[in-house]
Design a protein that fits this description.
Distance between the termini: 13 Å
Order of helices and strands: HHHHHHH
Oligomer: single chain
Low-confidence stretches: none
Strand content: under 5%
């Protein structure tokens, strides 16, 4: 019995996905930015490749549009709550356009799991693990009350100099790679 069953994207989609997330991880590690030229071109490639691969072509456009909308919607909430940056939002939306809804959900889950582990490792190496765990509980409490956590605690705003931040393109990249590995098995 297989726990996860992922569809394997077309080879051209895989190549575009690998190129996009690897480039994003490099730029985010090096300059702490995910450039617009990368996210916009990845978005365009997602729509174009899906239109070329699917028959009829408009089914490919629909697949890309649904993937984009799901990815954008999920990540927009995190952006509004200042838990993520605009580059991360745009990269995830472009990935959604590349792979469609069901495959995006797999990448999203792997990104969240890997990002959580890397975040805890970062907090531990910076000797901020206790505060980070307390902040996680505080964030859940505030969100349950319908309040943005960053309003009362500045370090919970990703743009704050007090925030302990992880280059999010790294777990996004690792999540995409994990997804592709499982899709091939």
């Amino acid at each position: 019995m297989q726990l996860f069953a992922f569809t394997r994207p077309a080879a051209a989609i895989e190549v575009a996905l690998i190129a996009a997330v690897a480039t994003a991880a490099f730029t985010d590690l090096r300059w702490r930015r995910i450039p617009n030229w990368l996210t916009v071109s990845t978005l365009a490639v997602g729509f174009l490749l899906n239109a070329l691969i699917c028959n009829p072509w408009w089914a490919g456009l629909w697949l890309a549009a649904k993937g984009f909308a799901l990815a954008f919607g999920l990540n927009l909430l995190m952006y509004i709550l200042r838990m993520t940056g605009a580059g991360d939002l745009k990269l995830m939306a472009a990935i959604g356009a590349l792979v469609g809804c069901s495959d995006f959900l797999g990448i999203f889950v792997f990104n969240a799991l890997i990002g959580g582990v890397l975040g805890l490792v970062l907090a531990a190496t910076k000797r901020r693990l206790r505060g980070t765990l307390w902040n996680m509980g505080y964030m859940l409490s505030e969100l349950a009350k319908g309040r943005p956590p960053y309003l009362a605690r500045e370090q919970l705003d990703v743009a704050s100099p007090q925030a302990l931040t992880l280059p999010r393109a790294v777990p996004i990249c690792l999540g995409a790679f994990a997804f592709l590995v499982l899709a091939h098995s």
